[in-house]
Specification:
7-stranded mixed β-sheet, Metallo-beta-lactamase, Chain A, binds zinc ion, alpha/beta, 14 helices, 467 residues, 2 domains, 22 strands, Rossmann fold
C-alpha cells in the first residue's frame, strides 16, 4: 500500500518512537498517552479514571513513566477524564510546558478549583492524603501555554503541534503532531456534529497514525430533532401539572446546550415563560467562560449573537451561585425547572432538590446524560422506588424520563467517517477511550469497511511506530 515510502528512504530517514498507552485504554476515562523517540517525550492528556468515586484507587497509583523526564504535555480538552491528574503529574516532578487552546486552559482552571474541594473531602473521608492541593494546581497553571486553533507550534524535538476543532465541548481540540513527514493524530473526544452551539468537527487528512476515542464505537444516536421534542414535551407537561422539572446536568456543554434550547423555545414562542434556575456554581462559571469565547461558536450562533441575542439568557432564568439563593428555590412557586449538578446525582446541589421533590408524583426527573453503573442517577433511572439521600429515605414517586440524544460524542457511524478522511495514508489506528466491547467493534469496522489496520491496545502497553 505504501510502496513509495520504501523507495524514497534516501530522502527522509525513518526513526522509531515508542507510543505508550498509560491510560484511556480498555476504558473510557483516564486518557494518558506517551510518545517517546529517545530524545524527546511528550504526553497527550492526563485524566482521572472515573467511577463511583471521584477518585478511584488507581488514580493514586504512580505513573508508569517518570513525570520529571517528560518534556511536554498536550491537552485536548477540559473534561476531568482528560485533565484530572495533571496537578498530580506536576506534584510528582513534571516541569515541562503544557499546551492547550485558550478556552481549554480557562475551563481547566475552574475545573481544578472545583476538584481540589471534592478531592479534599474524599481524602478526609477515606483518611488518605489528597491526590493534590491548591499549591499543585497553582504550579500547574504556571506551566501552561495557550495555542489557538490552526496555529502551528514547534514544541521541541522536531515535533510540531496543530490544534483542530473537535466540536466536543468549548475549546476541545484534535491534536495533530507532525514529525518530518509523519503525522500522528490524537483525537481526544470527538463531538456529535452538527451541534447546536459549537462548530463542526474538522476533517483530518493525511494522518499516518491515529489514537482515537471510541465511547460510542458500537452504537448510533437517536435523532437530534427527537431529543429537542422530548425536552420540549417535558417542559410543557411540567407546566400543565404545576410541578418541578429537575435536570441533573454536567457543567460543561450539557448545561449550556440545555439553556440554549430553552432560550430557543421561549424566543420562538414554543413554550410560555417558566422560571428556570441554574443551581450550580461550577456550571455558572463555565457558562460565563462560554460567553467569553463566542469566536468558538458555529456561524449560526455567532449570527444570533451579532443580532443582539444573548443565547444563555431569557426571561425568568436565574443563576443561583450562592447557598442562600439555592435554598430559596425551595420557597419559590411551581411550575419551575431546576438544572443542577452533579450529572449522575453523586453529590452537588441536585441531591437537595431530589430529596425534596422526588416524592411528589407531579414532578419529573429528566435524565439527559449517561449514568454510570453504581451511581444514584443510574439506580433511579433503572426504576428504584426507594433510595437514600443524605441519610434520609426517599420514595421515588416522581416520573423519571431519559433523553439519550444529548451525547457530546460521535456515534459509531460518524467515528468511521472521521477515520475515512485519512484512510489513504493511515498505517494504523489505535482504538482507545472506550469500553472493550465498543473499541473492538469499531476496530473491526475500520478494518472491514476502510481496509485500514487497527488495534485495541491494553492499558500500559507500548508499541513502536515509525516517525
Ligand atoms: Zn470529553
Amino acid at each position: 500500500m505504501h510502496l513509495w515510502r520504501g523507495s524514497t528512504t534516501l530522502q527522509i530517514k525513518m526513526s522509531k518512537a515508542k507510543l505508550t498507552f498509560a491510560g484511556g485504554a480498555g476504558t473510557v476515562t483516564g486518557a494518558n498517552f506517551l510518545l517517546d523517540n529517545g530524545d524527546f517525550k511528550f504526553l497527550v492528556d492526563c485524566g482521572l479514571e472515573q467511577g463511583e468515586k471521584f477518585c478511584k484507587d488507581c488514580n493514586y497509583d504512580p505513573f508508569i513513566y517518570d513525570p520529571a523526564s517528560v518534556d511536554v504535555l498536550i491537552v485536548t480538552h477540559s473534561h476531568s477524564d482528560h485533565i484530572g491528574r495533571i496537578p498530580k503529574l506536576v506534584k510528582e516532578g513534571f516541569k515541562g510546558v503544557i499546551y492547550s487552546t485558550p478556552s481549554t486552559r480557562d475551563i481547566s482552571e475552574v475545573m481544578f478549583a472545583d476538584s481540589v474541594k471534592i478531592i479534599g473531602q474524599e481524602a478526609k473521608k477515606e483518611d488518605v492524603e489528597p491526590l493534590y492541593d491548591d499549591e499543585d494546581v497553582a504550579k500547574t497553571m504556571s506551566l501552561w501555554k495557550t495555542v489557538k486553533y490552526h496555529e502551528n507550534t514547534d514544541i521541541g524535538g522536531g515535533f510540531s503541534l496543530n490544534f483542530k476543532d473537535a466540536g466536543h465541548i468549548l475549546g476541545s481540540a484534535i491534536a495533530e503532531v507532525t514529525h518530518k513527514d509523519k503525522k500522528i493524530v490524537f483525537t481526544g473526544d470527538l463531538g456529535n456534529t452538527p451541534a447546536p452551539i459549537l462548530r463542526d468537527t474538522e476533517k483530518v487528512e493525511g494522518a499516518d497514525y491515529m489514537v482515537m476515542e471510541s465511547v460510542y464505537g458500537d452504537r448510533n444516536h437517536e435523532d437530534k430533532e427527537e431529543r429537542r421534542a422530548h425536552l420540549k414535551q417535558a417542559i410543557l407537561d411540567i407546566k400543565k401539572r404545576g410541578g418541578v422539572l429537575m435536570i441533573p446536568a454536567f457543567s460543561i456543554q450539557r448545561t449550556q446546550l440545555l439553556l440554549y434550547e430553552i432560550n430557543n423555545f421561549v424566543e420562538e414562542g414554543e413554550i410560555d415563560e417558566i422560571p428556570v434556575y441554574l443551581d450550580s456554581p461550577l456550571a455558572i462559571k463555565v457558562t460565563n467562560l462560554y460567553q467569553k469565547y463566542p469566536e468558538n461558536f458555529n456561524e449560526s450562533v455567532k449570527k444570533e449573537i451579532s443580532e443582539g441575542d444573548n443565547i444563555f439568557e431569557f426571561p425568568k432564568l436565574s443563576f443561583t451561585p450562592r447557598v442562600e439563593e439555592s435554598k430559596s428555590i425551595a420557597k419559590s412557586d411551581s411550575p419551575k425547572i431546576v438544572i443542577a449538578g452533579s450529572g449522575m446525582s453523586m453529590g452537588g446541589r441536585i441531591l437537595h432538590h431530589e430529596k425534596k421533590y422526588l416524592e411528589d408524583k407531579n414532578n419529573i426527573l429528566l435524565i439527559v446524560g449517561y449514568q454510570a453503573a453504581g451511581t444514584l442517577g443510574r439506580r433511579i433511572q433503572d426504576g428504584a422506588k426507594e433510595i437514600e439521600i443524605m441519610e434520609q429515605n426517599v420514595f421515588v414517586r416522581a416520573e423519571v424520563r431519559s433523553i439519550h440524544g444529548f451525547s457530546a460524542h460521535k456515534d459509531s457511524e460518524n467515528l468511521l467517517s472521521f477515520v475515512e478522511d485519512s484512510s489513504d495514508t493511515l498505517r494504523k489506528v489505535f482504538v482507545c477511550m472506550g469500553e472493550p466491547k465498543s473499541s473492538s467493534f469499531l476496530a473491526q469496522r475500520i478494518r472491514d469497511f476502510l481496509d485500514v489496520e487497527s488495534y485495541v491496545p491494553e492499558k500500559g502497553e507500548s508499541i513502536e511506530i515509525e516517525i
